[in-house]
Amino acid sequence: MNTLVWVLLGILAYSAAALLLRRYGLLPSSVSIQGPFTTIHTKRGRDFIDWIATPKRFWRAWTNFGLGVTLIIMVGMFLFLLLQGLFILQNPPAPSAVNQPQNFLVIPGVNDFLPLSVAPEIVLGLLVGLVVHEGGHGILCRVEGIDIESMGLFLFTLLPLGAFVQPDEESQRNADRGGKTRMFAAGVTNNFAVTIVAFALLFGPVIGSIAVAPGMAVQGSYDGSSAAAAGIAQGDRITGVGGTPVSNESSLDAALAATDERTLQVELNGGDSAADRETRTVSVRRSLIVAGSVAGNPANLSVGEEPITVSQVNGTPVHTQSGFSEAVGGSKFASLTTSRGTVTIPIGAYVTQVSGDGPLANAGAPTDGSVIVTAIDGERVTSSSDLDRVLDGTRPGETVPVELYDDGGLSTYEVTLGENPNDGGGFLGVGLFPGTSGLLLTDFGVQSYPAGTYVALLGGDGGPGASSVAGALASSPLSAVYVALILPLASLVLGIPNFPGFTASVTNFYSVTGPLGFLGSNVFLLANVCFWMAWINLQLGMFNCIPGYPLDGGRILRTSAEAIVSRLPVSEPYTVVRTITTGVGVTMLLSLLLLVFGPTMLN
């Protein structure tokens, strides 16, 4: 059974047990249960909140600053949700994982982007976020002279969904408008403060104590590949091939390209846990397979359950990528003998997209994609990596002939190259499918894990294996906020696997050093706590800034509207305030519904 079925069974069992306890009067008076929802009330702790609220001048100054930040974010959230809702109405995007209803729940294992392996850290972050949020409301209640009726937690079975401080209604009504507004803003202010502290630790000493271990980190092996047959799997780290040391993915590719030997001795470090990890050597017998393909490729091959092997090129037996290139030679076309038959195709780098205002398009080349680059400046191009290598040797502003295969024939265009934003080299302005002619060919078959990229995105030293994307994002002044939002969604935003945190399955790719090296492997636990603490608190703070009742943003909108309308010459100020708050609240609700259900319903 999948995780969702187990969760549903657990909810039913909890609800049945709660019903029995309530029927026989075994629940304390402070606990109420309705189905899977549990509310725990208590009056304890009010003296503690009174003590914390003693420096009233400090708390007023703190929440005045937080109120300013909250108002800015409220306006941003209103505009974002409004514009996003209008965009979905006008141009409904295709449904994706990010707008599936279960992915709006902060439940590890149910939400596709919140892995079950870091459930304790996520629950801790949620619990801390809820406590500091409601604690902020409670402290400002006492600062502003508002009595507290009770406090407590709201749970979905055993998972905390919310904490609450219940002010005395009459006391709250009698408080001045500014005091109530500060009280409503205190919760999100505290969430943002926790986010800043957690990020300061993570981006400072914590990530400074995590280094990328030498070797090529293995995310997995393609089905039917040589690596899979040799037992190379997720969590392994390749440290050598045929006696040649391997430090990252580039050095692995270089070691494989340097030899046409069919059987190689590969050195690995890996295991199911830190205690089981060991260095071992395996024999890998290479064979050339198609591990992936783009729709509409000239070979008309689509990878399914059974792997596609390539045994001959132009009648020459091949078992490696270097052998494939040698068999192709200078020919622009080649005959491939595969496990699904023999096909003759143009050989080159498959272009999936041509930028409408890019250098290639400006030279008059087709802009509908699905073209193949076969040569640049007279140099033969047989794959996407060939194209990258040739462009690395060019300069922006240089004019070179580019040969393309399109619509059954070869054409040459004089292209004035642009500047590659990542490395400053020549730039064509195209998107490429990795491999040859729309086919991802491999004689080894491992998928790399971007260990260095994650470290670099979090502000550390990712080493030479870190991607240029990490460098571009790390230079942004708002990188901490941006990274917190996108790393769990990295597969959708950056094209790399979603970041699970430094879990046991990937810690083999890292080593501990630096200022917190004395903590050993506990550094990974601390990194996970800091990351998810920041991520959860940021989400809580931003969500509560939405200007819709009963969220804090909606309450602040009401008090702010009352303050403005009270100064206007209107006969019925209450009606005006209600119209404003209701209109904004309904707009936000509709925008949220469109965000969640729009892509599915409108398609």
Automatic annotation (TrEMBL):
Keyword Coiled coil (UniProt): no
Topology versus the membrane: Multi-pass membrane protein
Gene Ontology annotations of biological process type: proteolysis
PDZ domain segment(s): 204-270, 330-408
Superkingdom of source: Archaea
Stored Pfam families: Peptidase_M50
Keywords assigned by UniProt, alphabetized: Hydrolase, Membrane, Protease, Transmembrane, Transmembrane helix
InterPro entries registered for this protein in UniProt: MBTPS2, PDZ, PDZ_sf, Peptidase_M50
GO terms, molecular function: peptidase activity
Places the protein is found: Endomembrane system
Matches recorded under SUPFAM superfamilies: PDZ domain-like (SSF50156)
Ranges that cross the membrane: 6-24, 65-89, 113-133, 192-213, 478-496, 516-536, 576-597
Entry protein name: Site-2 protease family protein
The organism of origin for this protein: Halogeometricum luteum
Organism classification: Archaea, Methanobacteriati, Methanobacteriota, Stenosarchaea group, Halobacteria
